[in-house]
Write a structure and sequence with these properties.
homodimer, three-stranded mixed beta sheet, Tetracycline Repressor, domain 2, MgtE N-terminal fold, 454 residues, 3 domains, globular, mainly alpha, CBS-domain
Chain lengths: 454, 454
């Protein structure tokens, strides 16, 4: 078994390859990459400079080059393709499925795109690309490929297989043949298994399955992902507003959507602002991380200014200062938990969800339960360790209020962000955490001020 | 087009259905669910009590019941199947692919499992299930199904199609026919497209593709997901340690792995300790959230005790208290960012990654760059707004030290957790955040103590 996973990505091989590049040992380069899966070559070339990669590309066939380009990460690819002429890129794009070609063109400035499309000889491909570029990147239209096998319901199985034969060259993976009526409207599908087992003379109309899930070109990519995941689909047909079959989305593209969204959410939560990886340069990592740190620091400075108003209280009762971290940490934790639950339910909408009022009431009750338990524990602890009743009352009342307030903020913020089309996961990120810190301090010192002046 | 997505999950329909349940209107129940996709029925039944669901199940065919059971969420299902006898469950399991059947059995106590397996009439199915139950749930062996189409390389295409015909009933989705030699070792595959287009008299040996990716039974589920995603596979064959073909993993199961892992990571980060959703009860949500809140609170109490040692400093320089939130927030942010980058690189291992020493050095330099920038900004701000040089020096030196320390902790903790087989994402969660808070306070007040006693 000559499995592709026998391609050993080892440090030794990398060094040997580097040497071959320096010595223009083209035979070694071509031999060692021959038959290797493009995903592996792509991951391997990631270790070399753009110029070195370009050198390797020139040695490979256009087909292989196109496959490798498909696999490259977007940010790397956008830079890398600047080394090619429009004519060279057009040659790669002609080898790709229309969705992958569109993805590549998205990475380029608009003027370069048009130049590339002009250089494409296959007119159908060029018009497909122009059509796909019209859609937003994050809807079904922007994810779909034009390549698919469709059959008229009046055809017989032999005609169907003939059509597959005709299209086979252009389509890498066939899962189903989509069935359309004379108006080109999608009416069903025939799985390949059924096609293999059917009698050659059967008509498509007799064997097709009319229960199928389709999406519209305007369907949001996350909804496409939810639908494909829910119904365990490996491909979903895309129709336009009038029900006409216009494209097909395959599961590999949707998996990319799922992982990219999880990644984006993580970035919003941790405040690492762009695609940084551990092997990026010190400066690049620092630059990506600084914005959140600066927001947090600015919040801390505002908090310091604010606490300046309570200098007297702190001098009289220095123990008040001891509980600042308890208050801010609890507020932060409650806020992140609340927003996380809301973000989750926004990602998996449920038609039977309670009304907004009921949801807010429930959040309120959860906050009351948590708040009372935490406040009682803190009250007991302060009495036990510090024997100071006013302090215990201040800290526990403030903690209870902070839990309530942070729950409310953590629930409402992602809902408001979502309403305005902003990713709600941002609510678990820097701005809100910092705001929660400040609100917590305000509540704490206001309570202290009130109680100690009673 | 009778698309499954025309099944309207509306509040009105739910009320009508509820009424039908109360009035034992079996005709309405059966009619309204007829032809509806099992994933939709499953989501819909989630809204009703276990007893009501059981009533509906008894009206549906065993096939439909089995499909719905496959779609139910694990925690709901574990409870729900308690209502069925071992014999009833066995009937459902017989309708399922072996991987789904195994998943269902995993949800049951071991003694009940064995009882169910004894009730299964199909001996091959029973032995397949017993084999699959031997594997851990989180390796390829625990994910795979025994159902697949395999062909000996000496067969011709007609024999291959005959085999598909024989197996077709049991296998929902065929992507490829796997090719084995006389020792049952996996040597390649034939895609369905190729099979359709091939001449009936061709031999499998002439047309099969010997470049294929396979995984071993012991491969970790995350690695399986990475491999399938990297090579855009919709199914991957599983071999045992001696290269014998033993099963197949399909992409739908792997998508579940990907989303579950993202979910688990989110839960570890936000400290919501079990599968809670917005529509769970107030008490259930509170209970899930309390553990982290209590950890955070306990950390806050320890911090308060600790700051008690610095009561004198705070009375003399109350402004020291003002910067506590700045110090703890910055430490927390730096720690989460650092651990997030490490968690990411652990999930996507790179053979060309730098050595551990080099990685730690890089983390150190990034921390130095960030620390210096933040410290300078804070120093300037304190001078500007408070005109207090010792305070400015104290806060900025402490901040710089905290950034360094939190970077180190955030980097090392996930690595250590991972080494001991614990999910490294825990490092972005409650324990570490709380520990970072305490370390930050310790550094801050130690610096203050040193500087003010100089």
């Amino acid at each position: 078994m000559e499995a592709v996973n026998t391609f050993e990505l080892s440090v030794e091989f990398k060094e040997r390859f580097q040497l071959a590049l320096e010595e223009d040992d083209n035979a070694f380069i071509m031999d060692s990459l021959d038959g290797v899966n493009s995903a592996d070559i792509s991951a391997f070339l990631d270790e070399f400079s753009s110029e070195e990669c370009k050198y390797v590309f020139d040695l490979l066939s256009v087909e292989t080059g196109a496959e490798i380009l498909e696999e490259l990460e977007e940010d790397v690819r956008g830079e890398f393709i600047k080394q090619f002429t429009a004519q060279e890129i057009a040659a790669f794009v002609e080898q790709m499925d229309s969705d992958d070609g569109t993805d590549l063109l998205y990475d380029m400035p608009v003027s370069d795109r048009n130049e590339v499309i002009r250089q494409i000889h296959d007119e159908e491909k060029a018009s497909n690309l122009m059509e796909l570029l019209e859609y937003d990147e994050d809807v079904a239209g922007g994810l779909m490929a034009k390549e698919l096998i469709k059959a008229n319901h009046n055809w017989n199985i032999l005609q169907c297989i003939e059509e597959i034969r005709k299209q086979a060259e252009n389509i890498e993976k066939i899962y189903s043949v989509y069935v359309v009526n004379d108006k080109e409207e999608l009416i069903g599908k025939v799985g390949l298994k059924k096609l293999i087992l059917a009698n050659d003379r059967s008509k498509v109309a007799d064997i097709y399955d009319d229960e199928l899930v389709s999406v519209e070109t305007s369907t949001d990519e996350e909804e496409v992902a939810n639908i494909m995941q829910k119904y365990d689909l490996e491909a979903v047909p895309v129709v336009n507003a009038r029900g006409k079959l216009v494209g097909r989305i395959t599961i590999d593209d949707v998996i990319d959507v799922i992982t990219e969204n999880a990644e984006e959410e993580r970035q919003l939560m941790t405040g690492v602002s762009s695609d940084v990886e551990e092997d990026d340069s010190v400066w690049r990592i620092s630059k990506a991380r600084l914005p959140w740190l600066i927001i947090g620091m600015a919040g801390g400075l505002v908090g310091a200014q604010f606490m300046g108003f309570f200098r007297e209280e702190i001098i009289i009762v220095p123990a008040l200062a001891f509980f600042i971290p308890l208050i801010t940490a609890s507020g932060g934790n409650v806020g992140i938990q609340s927003s996380s639950i809301v973000v989750q339910s926004l990602a998996n909408p449920n038609v039977f969800a309670d009304s907004m009022l009921k949801r807010l009431l429930k959040v309120f009750f959860v906050a009351v339960v948590n708040g009372i338990i935490l406040a009682l524990m803190v009250f007991g602890s302060v009495i036990l360790f510090m024997s100071d009743q006013s302090l215990a009352a201040t800290v526990s009342i403030a903690l209870f209020s902070v839990v309530l307030l942070a729950s409310f903020m953590g629930t409402v913020t992602p809902l408001v962000l979502n309403r305005f089309g902003v990713n709600p996961a941002l609510a678990s990120g820097p701005f809100i955490t910092t705001t929660n810190d400040l609100l917590g301090l305000a509540v704490y010192f206001s309570v202290a001020h009130l109680l100690y002046n009673l």
